[in-house]
Structure formats: structure tokens, C-alpha cells
Sequence to fold (338 residues):
Amino acid sequence: MGELINKVMIEKMKAVVYTRYGSPDVLNLREVEKPVCGDNEVLVRIHAASVNAYDLHALRADPFFSRLFFGMFKPKNQILGVDVAGRVEAVGRNVKHFQPGDEVFGDICECGCGGFAEYVCVEEDFLVLKPAGMTFGEAAALPMAAVTALHGLRDEGRIQSGQKVLINGASGGVGTYAVQIAKSFGAEVTGVCSTGKLNMVRSIGADQVIDYTRENFARSGKSYDLIFAANGNNSIWDYKRALNPGGVYVMSGGSMGQMFQAVLLGPLISAACKEKMGTFVSRPDRNDLAFVKELVESGKVSPVIEKRYPLSQVPDAIRYLEEGHARGKLVINVVNDE
Fold:
């Protein structure tokens, strides 16, 4: 009888689950056990999430060595989703910064993910109060992409006011934030994107735009103090050619070939030349997310959201992201309150 009562008392929630690696077809909307927060955790009722390349890599376990982090033979964490925004429903006894009812957002990739669900338990150090005046969907579009852009430009690129900065992949999730954050530091920004996205990239602050379908920035004769690659398939030699002496090239996204060149050749070129070239790994940081929040509240940064999907259509959202043509961010409305 006691066992029966315990089963009845277990609360359920909806979540998009995968138990094996593969295409978005392996994702299924199911009822699973609602999590219970530990002493240092916050239980968040998720109102919105957003899709990142991280989710795609975790879904397909691509590249293969990523299985060291995601699980060698099957997913270690069965619910994708790293960017969340929602309302605190309960807190553990050691939680100091939040209370039930608080509206929060954050990147939960180091808490086991779980954003494509109705509830998630998160360590409080990965959450920040939602920016004033923002919807949950807008807040969910911020964490991973905006902090990645900040780390690449400020920490790796050492961006300075007055510098000429090129953003390759300026119309994507990370790229749209990179354009705005570079402008907030006082840089002169050139954005690289496709024909149909030129006006959007101008609208978020780019001083110049280059249509990569018609012009190769590396052969234009122009050079830059800092190049941030959020996407693209240019060779590392293209980037070196477009750098001013002593310039910096930072790679955060793009083709597999571009990534391996940045990892393998970047340090060698940096050691032999005046230019600094390479890639980096961005990790969630509560202070940096709070910095992004300040940029948002001051009007210097705002999310670009192309599409919104209900929780049941997470597979469609990831398919669209995989096509490589998304403008800005794709948001998952877990609660339809916007």
C-alpha cells in the first residue's frame, strides 16, 4: 500500500526526451518525473527556452570526441536545452539569492541541461534575475549566445574602443550579440552575412556589411584589428590576411575544418607571428550574465528572435537550426504567455 501511495504522489511534467544519439527524429515529448531540488538548488518553472548549436552537438554526439562529455554510448542527460527563463517555484535550504516567485534566466549546461521541459532544478550560481521589461522568451534567448560573444570579444579579443572589428556570421545567434556588444565597446563593426540578412545586421548596429555570397572579405584589401568568427568556413589564412599587424582572430563557431585549423594551426601562427589566432571555450558565468543583463537594460543589446515554437515542436526548431540559415535565435515557448 505504501509503495502505491508513493507512486501516486510522484508528480509528472512534460519534457522532450532522447535516449540515443541521432537526428531530431529521436526526440520525443513525454511525461517524466518532475525534479525535486536539492539543498543548493532552485526549482524553476520554465516559461521559455532557446535553441543553441550546443543542443545539436549533444543530440548527434558530433564531433565524436564530444561523447567524452555527453556520454560515450548514449546520452548521459536525456533532456536537451541549456538556455532557460522562468519563475522560481521552490528553493533548497541553502539557497541565498532567490525565493519563490522570482523571475530568473540562465545557462544551465553545467547543471545537466534540461531546458526543454516544464521544470528544471538548477544550482543558484547559474541563474540571474530576469532583465526588467523583458519577456521570458526574450530572456531565454540571451544566456549562452550573448555570454559567448562577450567572452570572445572582451576576454579573448581584448576589444578596445575605436578598433575595426569584423564579425563573420553576424546574423546568427552568437553573431547578432557580437555585433551589438562590439558596438557597446565603441568599436567600428563590419558584419558578414548573406544577402537576405544585410538589412537586419545593419539594424542592430553594424557600420558596414559584407555579403559573403558576392564578396570575400579576405580579398577586399581591408584589414581589421579584431576578427570574431561566429560562423563561416573560411580558412585560417583568410583570417590572417585580413588582420592588421598585431591583430586578433577569435573563432567560436563555424565549419569543422575551420575549428580544427583554429585549434591546431592557431597556436603555431600566434607563436611565429605578431597576430594572435585561435579558439576558446565559453563557460557559464553568473557575473558575465549579469553584465549582459546590464547591457540589455541600458538599451545597448537586444535579442534578435526569428521564430518561436511550442515545446512539442523542439525537433522542428533543431532541424531549422541545423539548416544554418536562422536569423538570430529560435525560442521555445514552454508556457504560452507571450
